[in-house]
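Appendix B. Chain record.
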Amino acid sequence: MRRALLAITGLAAGTTAMVVLKGSPGTSPVAQDLPAAPPPVVPAPAGPTPTGGEVSAAPSPSRTGASPRPGRTATRPPASRPSATTRAPTAPRTTTKPPPAPTTRTVTGPVVENEYGNVQVQITLRGTRIVDVVALELPEETAQSDQRSEQVDGRYSGTSGLVVQRQSADVDTVSGATATSTSYQQSLQAAIDRAD
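Structure tokens predicted for this chain:
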């Protein structure tokens, strides 16, 4: 019985040793009395590596202990990069200056005389636009004339009067102050003509 047990144990040990020596499927067999041959040398492709360096194609030494052969290093000529002297010319920069601010000036019309007195108008222009009108002289001899002058001045003069709104001397005549309105328009038109 003991012999039978020893025989079975020995058989199992021998089978295990064979399996271990032969190897599991998918692995290379253990060299058994075969001459050692150097593995084939496959040169690595030259060119940039993912990190940007160059790869050399030098063979690896064989297993037989022979010294490695001097390898060749595959080099690639450097890529041509545009230098500062070969850059394409850029378009010249054009600098546009802002237009000058319009000048403000005043122009005075002549004194126009009528049966109630004298009328003289002065205009203020910014560029070519009338921005203000002032009556420098209006009739004031009687209370009635003074009242008419105030009506004409109130309607035509100032920064929001009819002259600034219409930008011309073509304004409506003030009822009851025809002579003063007409004289105002004449002095105003002469001032506009002088401003041109």
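Further analysis of this model is presented in Appendix C.
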